[in-house]
Design brief:
The protein has 109 residues and is of the alpha+beta class. It has four helices and four strands.
Length: 109
Amino acid sequence: MTKVVIYGGACKFRTEVTILRDGWDVTINVSSECKHCQDYGNSIPSLSFFDLFPERGKPAVGFMENIFYKNADIYLPHVDCPVPCGLLKAIFAEFDLQLKEAPRFEFID
């Protein structure tokens, strides 16, 4: 199981994501203070590894074909919301495709 807490920027909303792997599939649970993020999370309750990598030996599906970003376009009012990225990071970590290390960016000026 992989759990991630994602904090929005200016909105300060907290979103908790839990990913549970079962073979080639994952169950996705999202609990958010933001109604838009909650609706977004509810739109993707599960998926298969092959939804992310439909063609063997090729990289993950691109931004425009990816269900996470397609649904983000439908449910989220701001393009800079960090929840889709955090959700994907959690899924990749649950599939052991990356370390459980948080991305980070800081405003320095």
